Amino acid sequence: MPSPRYWREIPNRFRLEAARCTGCGTVAFPARTICPKCRGRELESVRLSRHGKVVTSTVVRVAPDEFMMEAPYAMAVIETPEGARLMTQVVDCDPDTVGPGMEVDLVFRLIRKEDHGGILCYGHKAVPVGG
Ligand SMILES: [Zn+2]
């Protein structure tokens, strides 16, 4: 860790860039080259808004070692106005209050500090709108 996958995904993580299929309109995040729905190859880049709604959520009470300090915390699938879905941690609130329909803003936060080499991993997290 960090894995090659992490480094490849940096542009997506930083810019919230997704891909919209010109054939069927599906928005995929992270961006990819083949539409996950219709297998079309004509996709255009789309910048997601830093806002969305919780679709489903769960409270993580027993976390992997590296996140143990933060448990319990809420993980949620957020849908942006563009129709893209991404899974993020919901922070700055009581995890038990997170549920479908909750409006959130996507913020850029430190996700974890690697044990070896002191490498910092950043990514998006969701915070409830209006506290
Ligand atoms: Zn498609």
Please, could you describe this protein's structure?
With 131 residues, this protein is mainly beta. The chain has a single domain (4-128), classed as OB fold (Dihydrolipoamide Acetyltransferase, E2P) (Beta Barrel), CATH 2.40.50.840. Helices cover 8% and strands 42% of the residues. The strands form 2 sheets. It has a 5-stranded antiparallel sheet, with no helix packed on it. It has a 3-stranded antiparallel sheet with strand order 2-1-3. Strand 5 (73-79) and strand 6 (85-90) form a beta hairpin. The longest helix is centred in the first third of the chain and has 6 residues, at 10-15. The relative contact order is 0.18. The mean pLDDT is 84. It binds zinc ion (ZN). The site of zinc ion has 8 residues, from loops.
